[in-house]
Design brief:
Length: 660
């Protein structure tokens, strides 16, 4: 039997909530933000559907339509809403007092008021604009939502009719249908749809988006924004979208042509400024292709009086900035700003102390590529056909000072960082010596008797047999990796120091020492000798062949005693870190992704990577991470043409510290 409800009009002020309304236990349903669109619709169009009410205690209780009732009350309270007062009457339907299906009626009414089918909603919005002549702004006002939200729905409602029909018929998913809105042109949408379904394949949103990318470049894409002005000036076709950021530059070939022209201009500008021989451009920097290219680096030069004055000013400012950066309460923004200032100052100081040789300038060039939304310059590249390796050299040309230039794959470190790396290497070497007491004992005795009995120069300057512990200075001693320190501490704890009691006279101490086992004596001598090793880089086998061979024997892998950490990476330029990740470790994609990150974020990434290599690394990447260290700190397998060139201990203000 069908129950009919008599129509009537009721003043808004006479309406009250009904206790049987199924939404009475979810008050959040009636909160202002949740009925804003309903309030706007009623204000604009009136109450489109009557309320279902029942007479209770002289009032009309709203059995179904509680959200509409809440919206009406807000319209009364809103002084800006004209035409709505407590006396304003609205259409209702009266449920008899003896009706026993009250809760069922409320539930059914709320269920039938479920949101429209998504595609119906999209198409309804589109019809309001195309047929009724409304604008996104008027539609947004009607439904109490934002213009951007309306435009988003409109875009889906304007997808090609065949594609919307496929979604309605469950041939494709709603998400897949939405993916076609990535391109505003219905013709492009239809062509992609037919191409992807011609063999009966199952469509996915991802494959649709990828296919549409070949049909143009969105203006919101970093490349689209970069070339748009030139593209439109040349008459390039633009497929306009309701949402401006989804408009598409349809001529992908013209986009690439303009991009390459702009990259080429940037490369040529850098070539002229630096004096290189050639310039080139590529949209994406291909690490595999560029692996065959060499690279030249500027070598140290003697700064003139004005340059030296500026270098001294930079040094003083850097010291001040380093102190500011140690403030643990520093906000990220301020911290990053300090980093950028440090980078700029260090780069300026290098420019004052370095220059490319004429030979390098004559064969090297600049490649500009697009990376992370900006032009990236790759400086000092040498084409394979221009790479000349003279016999007996490392393949790099001489610098203007006559010293050998850095290896093409090597970073040239500032003097302060180089000196600290030498200290860390000496500490690692000391740990290795303490862990190999027999070999170190032999070296100590050999050094002692050779210096006394042999004629000529000392067999090695690496260790001093003068019973004085070597003083090692380091700018960040409390932040460096502690592996070698822990190993030395463990070696110290294993020593037999019973003979060294302060209460004993030296003669008694000596007697107790002589009574020790030979192995215990070896440990003591090795520990003492390890403490005298001087700061150094990888040895020059020609100038100090003894230590070169000895270090390879006891310290074939410095990473067993030392791990790069944030303290080291903090002192690297951002470009160096990206180069290490992309070229040395084979993490090219990660380098590209991190290029737009702050230096602080890149340092944190590197610190985590070396502390515990990620499970996602390939075997080759994992091996590269496990073996990497700055070239001058390597030992095993360091050939003469790979090792750091030997030189006298540098002056404190020299730019590139050489091997000790």
């Amino acid at each position: 039997m069908t129950t009919s409800f008599a129509p009537l009009t009721v003043a808004i002020g006479d309406l009250v909530p009904h206790p049987a309304n199924v939404r009475s236990n979810s008050p959040e349903t009636y909160e202002s933000e949740n009925i804003a669109h309903l309030k706007a619709s009623i204000a604009m169009l009136g109450l489109l559907q009557p309320l279902l009410v029942q007479k209770l205690d002289g009032k009309y209780a709203v059995l179904a339509g509680g959200r509409r009732h809440a919206a009406l009350k807000e319209l009364i309270a809103d002084n800006a809403s004209k035409g709505f007062t407590a006396k304003t009457k609205v259409d209702c339907r009266l449920v008899p007092d003896d009706c026993d299906v009250t809760t069922a009626l409320s539930l059914a009414e709320n269920i039938t008021q479920a949101p429209m089918n998504a595609i119906d909603e999209f198409e309804a919005f589109a019809r309001m604009m195309e047929v009724d002549g409304q604008t996104p702004e008027t539609i947004a006002k009607t439904f109490g939502t934002t213009v951007a939200a309306v435009k988003g729905r409109l875009r889906y409602g304007l997808i090609h009719p065949d594609i919307r029909a496929a979604a309605r018929g469950k041939v494709i998913t709603l998400d897949t249908m939405k993916a076609f809105a990535e391109h505003p042109s219905q013709e492009a949408q239809r062509e992609v749809y037919e191409a992807l379904t011609k063999d009966g394949g199952f469509l996915q949103a991802y494959t649709v988006r990828q296919a549409l990318k070949s049909r143009g470049v969105q203006v919101s894409d970093d490349i689209g924004a970069f070339v748009r002005a030139d593209y439109e000036a040349r008459g390039g076709a633009v497929a306009a979208d309701l949402l401006e950021e989804h408009s598409v530059l349809e001529d992908a070939a013209l986009v690439e042509t303009i991009l390459l022209e702009k990259l080429g201009a940037a490369a040529e500008e850098a070539r002229i400024k630096l004096g290189f021989a050639w310039a080139d451009a590529m949209v994406r920097y291909d690490y595999a292709t560029m692996a065959d290219y060499g690279r030249v680096y500027p070598g140290p030069i003697e700064p003139d009086e004005a340059a030296q004055k500026r270098i001294d000013e930079i040094t003083a400012e850097l010291e001040k900035l380093q102190l500011e950066m140690e403030d643990e309460g520093l906000e990220d923004g301020a911290y990053n700003a300090l980093y950028e200032r440090v980078d700029a100052l260090e780069e300026e100081a290098r420019d004052l102390q370095e220059a490319y040789s004429a030979e390098d300038l004559a064969r090297a060039g600049v490649v500009a590529s697009w990376s992370s939304g900006q032009v990236t310059l790759h400086i000092g590249l040498v084409r394979p056909e221009d790479t000349v390796k003279a016999e007996g050299t490392r393949g790099a040309s001489s610098s203007q000072t006559g010293e050998e230039a850095p290896d093409p794959g090597e970073i040239s470190y500032p003097a302060s960082l180089a000196e600290d790396l030498k200290t860390e290497r000496a500490m690692a070497l000391g740990a290795a010596m303490a862990l190999h007491p027999e070999a170190t004992l032999d070296l100590t005795l050999f050094k002692l008797v050779s210096d006394v009995l042999a004629s000529g120069m000392s067999v090695t300057q690496a260790i001093k047999i003068d019973a004085r512990k070597e003083y090692r200075s380091h700018a960040k001693m409390d932040e460096i990796d502690e592996t070698s320190l822990e190993q030395v501490a463990a070696a110290h704890d294993a020593l037999d120091l019973s003979w060294l009691e302060d209460a004993r006279a030296p003669a008694d101490q000596f007697a107790a020492f002589r009574a020790l086992e030979a192995g215990e004596k070896a440990k003591l001598v090795a520990y003492a000798t390890a403490s005298t090793t001087q700061s150094c880089f990888a040895r020059d086998r020609q100038r100090d062949s003894l230590m070169h061979a000895f270090e390879i024997e006891i310290m074939p892998d410095i990473r067993a005693h030392w791990t790069p950490n944030a303290a080291l990476f903090n002192r690297f330029k951002k470009a160096w870190l990206l180069k290490i990740l992309g070229e040395d470790l084979g993490l090219a994609q990660e380098a590209v992704t991190l290029a737009s990150s702050s230096k602080k974020e890149i340092v944190a990434f590197c610190d985590k990577l070396f502390a515990e290599p990620f499970a996602t690394l390939t075997d080759a990447q994992r091996a590269a991470v496990a073996a990497w260290c700055p070239p001058m700190m390597q030992t095993a397998g360091v050939a003469r043409d790979e090792a750091e060139p030997a030189a006298e201990t540098p002056e404190p203000d020299s730019e590139v510290a050489q091997a000790a």
